[in-house]
């Protein structure tokens, strides 16, 4: 019975991760006005004006006032555009596949970015 319970819990967790990935891709597509598969700084700024997008960002435990610093952290190569790989990697680090220590490190990076 315990093994079965663990399998059920693992299955539920996997479905939850898949659902979150789907939501993140949907959010990227919603923000991506020109449908090029990436989010420019300008697209992100515009999207934050939407109540729905702002609510989703806050659901990720990111203060909307800190969102631009968060965007800068997602933009690994500094080209003012976050592609789907940068987006999913950053979001997964924040929510989901990350270990607790990864999550704490990521949040520390956001705080440090805000202080500069």
Overview of this structure, please?
The protein has 116 residues and is mainly alpha-helical. Helix content is 71%, strand content 5%. It contains six helices and two strands, in the order αβαααβαα. The chain has helices at 2-31, 41-48, 51-59, 67-74, 84-94, 100-115, and strands at residues 38-40, 81-83. Strands 1-2 form a two-stranded antiparallel sheet. Helix 1 crosses helix 5 (84-94) and helix 4 crosses helix 6. It is elongated, with a radius of gyration of 16 Å. The model has no long low-confidence stretch (mean pLDDT 78).
Count of helical regions? 6
Uncertain runs are none
Largest sheet: 2 strands, antiparallel
SSE string: HEHHHEHH
Which structural class do you get from the secondary structure elements? mainly alpha
Number of strands: 2
Helical fraction: over 70%
**Largest sheet strand order:** 1-2
From the N-terminal CA to the C-terminal CA, the straight-line distance is 53 Å
Shape: elongated
The chain-level mean pLDDT equals 78
Q: How much is the radius of gyration in Å?
A: 16 Å
State the assembly state of the protein chains.
Answer: single chain
Tell me what portion of residues adopts beta-strand conformation: 5-15%
């Amino acid at each position: 019975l315990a093994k079965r319970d663990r399998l059920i819990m693992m299955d539920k967790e996997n479905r939850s991760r898949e659902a979150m990935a789907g939501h993140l891709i949907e959010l990227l597509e919603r923000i991506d006005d020109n449908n090029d598969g990436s989010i420019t700084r300008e697209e992100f700024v515009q999207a934050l004006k939407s109540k729905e997008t702002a609510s989703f960002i806050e659901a990720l435990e990111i203060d909307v006032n800190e969102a631009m610093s968060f965007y800068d952290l997602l933009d690994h190569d500094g080209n003012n555009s976050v592609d789907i790989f940068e987006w999913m990697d950053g979001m997964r680090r924040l929510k989901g596949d990350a270990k607790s220590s990864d999550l704490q490190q990521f949040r520390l990076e956001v705080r440090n970015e805000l202080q500069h």
